[in-house]
TrEMBL record:
Keywords assigned by UniProt, alphabetized: Magnesium, Manganese, Metal-binding, NADP, Oxidoreductase, Tricarboxylic acid cycle
Species of the source: Candidatus Flavonifractor merdipullorum
Name the UniProt record assigns to this protein: Isocitrate dehydrogenase [NADP]
Site for Critical for catalysis, residues: 139, 211
PANTHER family (UniProt xref): ISOCITRATE DEHYDROGENASE [NADP], MITOCHONDRIAL, NADP-SPECIFIC ISOCITRATE DEHYDROGENASE
Length: 406
């Protein structure tokens, strides 16, 4: 069979440890035999980031802006122990943080669902995608441990030096705590656009919730900005696609999410998204089945797995042991990116390949062949056959060949 041709390159960002090993194996077994893979390769592995003074990460993000679609392998975010292990010149920042800042993007996380592994919440039938506003609020707050009695005030001085606002926060009669949070209209608007854009792309409803009844300025601004962007830029598209934008209070949203059957995007403020994404991903089963895509407000996409570099498995691999590391989320990062590239470049064959590869992955697990992490969660009728990563990829390839022959 002739290989599928691509027109525009994908931005390929390689990574670290066990996922770097899987990355190459996925390409060799499932991609390059079928696609004349055209990528612009950036090695975001920690040694190369250190060698280039992290310029490689910036270059990869800029390339994503240029071409529009990227696929990224998990990477190490250095800490003190990694400084020692890799003899680093600096404790480089998280590549994901750097890329997100350059693209001004929002991260959407969605579980891959298979029959035989059911969510803890039994009425969840479809994925719930969580979008987290990864900017500001408590993550950039200024805090003060109030040591004694005294008055705390909120003061704003405009750029001309005029004090335009002053209000007492609390007159402390004893020690306490104090926190100053902020966010920016520009960031909230970008977040809103990315959410509406992704809802349109994936033809799913969008839910958004804050505590605007209590937080009448701060949270209410989020609510208002979302509504403005929706009315001005997306309402017509939503109507045309038959999808809905739904705003409610965060408490009400939590209750509805638990009772829902899934199948929508839940946009969350920074802290809500941090907490809720962990809850939702755990309830869906396994971190190894969670996909992630960074979407910029002007429609650039970077696909990746939500999990890390799976360090514990890598050390086993280095000792020569076979590992049963789950490649599903990394494969789906590739299929997500290839499908998007195919849509943008009008290459139906590439879109079809992405669909068939995803179906092959799901069919492999549903027929009982899976990695060790899933075998423990398996409730299917046939007993689970736990295999190592490479054998799992080969099993997927056999399914894929069947799909492609049809
Ligand atoms: P992790 O790599 O996600 O792994 C945590 C544990 O989850 C693993 O030890 C494993 O459990 C299980 N797991 C995760 N992915 C799996 C998979 N595909 N197949 C099977 N099991 C899987 O998180 P971490 O150990 O906290 O972090 C390791 C490194 O990854 C760190 O250097 C961190 O900076 C980096 N990281 C990168 C990203 C990213 O690039 N997006 C995200 C998170 C973390 P068992 O050991 O029980 O098998
Ligand atoms: Mg969290």
């Amino acid at each position: 069979m002739a290989k599928i041709q691509m027109t525009t390159p994908l931005v390929e960002m390689d990574g670290d440890e066990m996922t770097r090993i899987l990355w190459q194996d996925i390409k060799d077994v499932l991609l390059t035999p079928y696609i004349d893979l055209k990528t612009e390769y950036y090695d975001l592995g920690l040694p190369e980031r250190d060698k280039t003074g992290d310029q490689i990460t910036v270059d990869a993000a800029e390339a994503t802006k240029k071409y529009g679609v990227a696929v990224k392998c998990a990477t190490i975010t250095p800490n003190a122990q990694r400084m020692e292990e890799y003899k680093l010149h600096q404790m480089w920042k998280s590549p994901n943080g750097t890329i997100r800042a350059i693209l001004d993007g929002t991260v959407f996380r969605a579980p891959i669902m298979v029959k035989g592994i059911s969510p803890v919440v039994k009425n969840w039938k479809k994925p719930i995608t969580i979008a987290r506003h990864a900017y500001g609020d408590v993550y950039k707050a200024t805090e003060y441990r109030v040591p004694t009695t005294g008055k705390a005030e909120l003061v704003f001085t405009d750029e001309g030096g005029t004090e335009t606002f002053r209000q007492t926060i609390y007159d402390f009669e004893c020690p306490g705590v104090l926190q100053g949070q902020y966010n920016k209209d520009t960031s909230i608007r970008s977040f809103a656009r990315a959410c509406f854009q992704y809802a349109v792309d994936t033809r799913q409803d969008l839910w958004f919730a804050t505590k605007d009844t209590i937080s009448k300025k701060y949270d209410h601004t989020f609510k208002d900005v979302f509504q403005e962007v929706f009315d001005a830029e997306y309402k017509a598209k939503f109507d045309e696609l038959g999808i809905e934008y739904f705003y409610t209070l965060i408490d009400d949203a939590v209750a509805r999410v638990i009772r829902s059957e899934g199948g929508y995007i839940w946009a969350c403020k920074n802290y809500d998204g941090d907490v809720m994404s962990d809850m939702v991903s755990t309830a869906f089963g396994s971190l190894a089945m969670m996909t992630s895509v960074l979407v910029s407000p002007d429609g650039k996409y970077e696909y990746e797995a939500a999990h890390g570099t799976v360090t514990r498995h890598y050390y086993k691999y280095l000792k020569g042991e076979k590992t049963s590391t789950n490649p599903m989320a990394t494969i789906f990062a590739w299929t997500g990116a290839l499908r998007k590239r195919g849509e943008l470049d009008s290459l139906p064959q590439l879109v079809d390949f992405a669909d068939k590869l995803e179906r092959a992955c799901i069919a492999t697990i549903e027929s009982g062949t899976m990695t060790g992490d899933l075998a423990g969660l398996w409730e299917g009728e046939t007993p689970a056959k736990a295999v190592d990563s490479h054998a799992f990829l080969e099993a997927i390839r056999a399914e894929l060949d069947k799909n492609l022959a049809q």
